[in-house]
Amino acid sequence: MVTPPSTSRELSRREFIGTTAAAGAGLLLTSCSPDGTPKTAAAKNSPLNKINIALIGCGAQGQVLLDSLTVIEGLNLVAIVDIWEYKRNENIRRLKSQGFEVKGYENYEDLLANEKDLQAVVVASPDFWHAPITNACLKAGLHVYCEKMMSNTLEGARSMVQTMRETGKLLQIGHQRRSNPRYIFALNRLVREAKICGRITSAHAQWNRTVTNDLAWPKKSEISAEQLKKYGFKDMHQFRNWRWFKGLGGGPLSDLGAHQIDIFNWWFGSTAKSVMASGGVDYYTTHDWYDNAMVVYEFTTPEGNTARAFYQVQTTTSSGGGYFEMFMGDEGTIKMSESPNTTKLWREDRSTKAWEELVGENYLRASAVAKPAGDADKVDVRETAPLLEYEIPVSFNKKIHQPHLENFFNAIRDKNVKLNCPADEAFRSEYIIHKANEAIVAQKTIAITKEEVEA
Amino acid sequence: MNKIISQLTVAILLAASTAFAEDKVPLKTDLPKPMVVGTPAPIPKEIKLAPEVKQWPNFMVPAGTVNLAKGKKITSSDKDEPVTGSLDLITDGDKAGEEGSWVELAPGKQWVQIDLEKTAEISAVVVWHYHSQVRVYHDVVVQVSDDATFNKEVATIFDNSETGKDLAYIETSFGKLMDAKGVQGRYVRLYSKGNTAGKMNDYIEVEVFGKPAK
Fold first, then answer.
1. What ipTM score was computed for the predicted complex, to two decimals?
2. CATH for B27-212?
3. What's the pTM value of the predicted model, to 2 decimals?
4. Do A217 and A303 fall into the same domain?
5. A389 near A348, Cβ under 8 Å?
6. What are phi and psi of A232, to 5 degrees?
7. Which residues in chain A have their CB less than 8 angstroms from residue B37's CB?
8. Are A300 and A244 within one domain?
């Protein structure tokens, strides 16, 4: 049985994590927040706690991060960096319209040469620039929040972990689900404490997207050929669509799969011990990386059980239910997603767990379309009857990247706050994602040892 | 006698309805290619949404209806230089979700206004704010008036603000079609106040379908 925390801590925690929830679930979140103690309130009232930061990379992901950075208390956004003048100036104007005056730089070297009061940077450049930028910033004495993938190469990712260790600075990798209160609640309370799924034997995650055209650009705002070459791009098409090109990014398996394959590692509490995969450039004609990929990992859980995880990413169809991570056990299944509308739980009829008790305590909510409670003694061998369906009565009213960024800034302020996704932890996921792309080429199962996943 | 009158009435009604039906045609427009970029912002469960538009609606308009907004002058409440783009993009006919296709105005409540140059009988307004990211649009209000200042004789054709009757909606490449029910006016004003993905106010294209008022 799960014991709700005392109500004395409820209010401050609820303010801090900014969730909306049914009363009982609100209590639950008090011990499932992204980190130890609330710091943002203190930061707001103390100028000494202001952290001077810069954003490096103002593309689509950089703008998503800016949406969070501009609402987190206690930050002083000093500068933004982008090689594309069009995006750089656009974001300077956008920030100005929101009351932020920032400087703009073309590259991180100019930033580091001119801004001597920075304490941290947030890196959202193309993947192949992550390692050089992160290593330079760590060596310059800055804490770094770097988007996933850590790097387009394992060597690059490994160098980032080594630099983090050498400099003693913080390096958080942008697997933002690791700080999402809904994910933390579901894992800590429902899966691990209540063991609501029983023994988890398999997992299935996916991100299926409809066909899209390559990204275009305003012709009048093109970057010069000379400048593109300087920064490692063949032309504007490659610059705008770098995720699809080998040597620059890792394709959909790393762009979309990275988040979800990281969830396999995190929730299973171990790292995959083998991978087999299939994928290919079957549809698009202008890309290097695979349109579609299907991957099977094998895990040994901390309890010594075997579990298998299937991952698929399709960029040729949005069918199949969008994007989610689902963990299936002998007593129940939990389907997680950053979209709260997709999150569901199903109870196996044979489950002996006290699901209804958890409903009574507002840890769960019976789905509106759930069938009446069945008789666990009756087993229909002809077809599988629909399972009882439940929901997590918690919704999250912050930007999805905000808690992970807050965890990073709180860790800068307070040594007692631990990063939720430090680079050495992220490297283990990074490793098995790279190995999936490798398995597609090799067309065979690749074994992964415990030793090789450590940076 | 009564039977003859009754038959005559039916015949007249049938003729009138046939003529009426012949005057109506399905509204058509060129649609942009769908595109979705980046991580979708989760949609809060608490928001009550209009059904997502998955295909161009079968919306009937009087024959001869055209897009009166094409190339017309735009003004806005944001007196600063747009964050990106320019106001003329709103009526330039380009509805693509690509960089360079939209104008972005400052955060908070903003409006853009189209001057149709003459009073028109308006059947529908179709707006594309932004369709390359899944966003929920709320606080959208669209009004028509013959008064450029919108201080008098204002007709509201769509309102999904807190006080309005329309629902929030997810915008797609089909845009948002709003039934103007033949309201007359020279100016069309569209209000917005961010969306679930951010505070900014974006416009790719606005089309105003109607005919010059008689």
1. 0.82
2. 2.60.120.260
3. 0.87
4. yes
5. no
6. 90, 15
7. 60, 212, 215
8. yes
